[in-house]
Amino acid sequence: xxxxxxxxxxxxxxxxxxxxxxxxxxxxxxxxxxxxxxxxxxxxxxxxxxxxxxxxxxxxxxxxxxxxxxxxxxxxxxxxxxxxxxxxxxxxxxxxxxxxxxxxxxxxxxxxxxxxxxxxxxxxxxxxxxxxxxxxxxxxxxxxxxxxxxxxxxxxxxxxxxxxxxxxxxxxxxxxxxxxxxxxxxxxxxxxxxxxxxxxxxxxxxxxxxxxxxxxxxxxxxxxxxxxxxxxxxxxxxxxxxxxxxxxxxxxxxxxxxxxxxxxxxxxxxxxxxxxxxxxxxxxxxxxxxxxxxxxxxxxxxxxxxxxxxxxxxxxxxxxxxxxxxxxxxxxxxxxxxxxxxxxxxxxxxxxxxxxxxxxxxxxxxxxxxxxxxxxxxxxxxxxxx
Length: 386
What we know:
386 residues, transmembrane transporter activity
């Protein structure tokens, strides 16, 4: 693939697409709140895309091994148009559910296929660098998107959805033009699948794959609570939609800087202590949200959570695609794990907020991460014994 086309598809497209989807995801709970929906309804709105994504990620990941990955990427980019279009005219609860369902379908088609496609390109020894660029791309878009969404929502309730519709259309036509001009890609079974980038003993590889997925699940559980339940707390505290967008920007920007940092560093892939340390920082951030109503404390907490999420995502994605075979399904499992966390977080967090208080979900999330750290330490003990 020509270098300019590779950068356009692999690194520019994720940035722009996530910018549009970040704007949409930011505005969905705010629009739902403006329509009088409760915390539990906000949780179910987050639950629908989560369960859909979990159920469809692996089938689409398997399909990408048999069908050209670029076809699934293109189909997913087309389906991304539909949720934005629906939300531009939404006035009923079922339209929220339908839009979020279609958003998850598009994501399940798009992201595992694109991740596996990137892993097959060029020298396998450059995997860490390429994944660093990719992670920086999509996370930068996700950082900018909520900031734009919060500002646009303050101007007009539907403006973020018009913006995401425009972005989705642009991405689809860019991909359509570039992919149709490119020669057919080999199927996933025929490309660069002889050895992983960093061949290691199976015990070490399986251990780090396990702990990174446990950590990623707990962090995405917490992020699900933040993204779908925190807007209710911020609204009750009188925080403007613009400043809420800024907080979400700080969360994603911290994640972006961490992803970029891990993309530049070497040797972290098989180190346990960095991932444990950043999870402890996430626990600290969640406790701060639980104990405080200060926007400055929220700002610090979001920075801690963003850096932790960037760390666990870097570990999980690297170990998921650093495999000799079946990259599509392995990347899909990576997405399923974080999708499961993103699914359960809003649902449980919404129920806890409804039953107790709007601060309570954050201490629950902190306990979930602490339990995950305990499981990782148990796995480490077992690894030492074997």
